[in-house]
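re: that complex we talked abt at group meeting.

here r the seqs, copy pasted straight from the sheet so there may be weird spacing, ignore it
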Amino acid sequence: MRLEMGHIYIKDIQFATESKIEDGVLYVSEEALKAVALEDEKLKSVSFDIAKPGESVRITPVKDVIEPRVKVEGRGGIFPGVIAKVDTVGSGKTYALKGMAVVTAGKIVGFQEGIIDMTGPGADYTPFSKTLNLVMVAEPVEDIKPHDYEAAVRFAGFRVAVYLGELARNLQPDEVKVYETLTIKEGILKYPDLPRVAYVQMLQSQGLLHDTYVYGVDAKKIVPTIMSPTEIMDGAIVSGNCVSACDKNPTYVHQNNPVIEDLFAEHGKTLNFVCQIITNENVYLADKMRSSDWTAKICKMLDLDGVIVSQEGFGNPDTDLIMNCKKIEAEGVKTVIITDEYAGRDGKSQSLADADAAADAVVTGGNANQVVILPPMDKVIGTLAYVNKIAGASEETLRADGSLEVEIQVITGATNETGFGYLSAR
Amino acid sequence: MVKEIERAGIPVVHVCTVTPISMTVGANRIVPAVAIPHPLGNPALEAGEEKALRRKLVEKALGALTTEVDGQTIFE
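got the structure back, here u go
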């Protein structure tokens, strides 16, 4: 499958009477955005704000981060099965608005997680302090069921991103990248001497606010399957989860998955990137056993030499991770696993809930329990009303001077397990 | 907690959903539970059915508690 990805660099976002992209500036009509967001009758009102890198702005709670894209040529549309009709995406031509993101924020439902600081020490931990953020805060109609509200906000974010992406349909991209994977037989013939490597992506699927969707299907209802790694670039996988925001994958991370980017960079040089394999992290033991059995079976059937496995989240998904690792290794396929750690504030506790000798090549996204002081910001988009209750906070979190004493697990993307974050031992 | 209580000389049954973690941490008597969000119940069942399920789990745990084990054992 071959996908041409055109990058259109956005240097600034401004509210205007008419929506358009001109000389790298995204002009957006607030009225038009509101109309797009409020197409869903479950939403009563919505407001938009712009947060730029370096500004004294804190965005919280953050539900999702999305990169606007548009399908210019080829089958299907962006977010198939969610916004566009179901069709297999990942081929043809797609444009992406680089340097910016749509952020859905504000009180959501149940958990009020996720912080993005646009400046200060917090900004060093989140990749989304470097993007120009168009932030949407939505209010539901009264008496709405919590899960309906969650879905309404999720879909509104995607609609806004698609609306913005459409503005780029007739533009010339600043840069074009080409991603291409071969069929199994073609790949073996073309690269007979290169190791055959796949990416096993574990998708968070534990229930409300811990869900991920594949072509619109709730990932807890899938069995492991294979995908072309270009499908995700057209929004085949979207996020419905933000709890313990440090190691959840917002939709933006799915669209720009660095494991896939890096495997493509080595494709045809040091390895043959065969495919992406997706699996889930369910709350029933039988599901965990079935999914890891199938993932290992698929690795074996594809005659892979090695896989990179990325986890999403922590705790009981550590068991899914170790089951995948153990069973894939038992099939004679080498594994490298990517995870993060909950090693306590002093870093001295056991990092994962499960372990095995087969997991002898591990990459960490960092210790989510590490404590950081986030100084007060001039402006808050969303609300700080729940900040003492989120995972990684405590009753003492909000201090008298307005600063926050928190674990980095509250920061969106801080210990991302696809390597999307900035933490490094180098 | 399981290990500390056993260290004090009192046998423990660990009722839990993710039995592999229980094996890793070293529990000796393990009874598999229903699911992570609801280990001892099932909201999908009728009240009567759920009560029966819960009773069965507790009885199985009590049975495990009075069973001699030779090393780590999962009571399926």
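couple things i noticed - The longest helix of chain B spans residues 47-65. Strands of chain B lie at 13-16, 29-32, 73-74.
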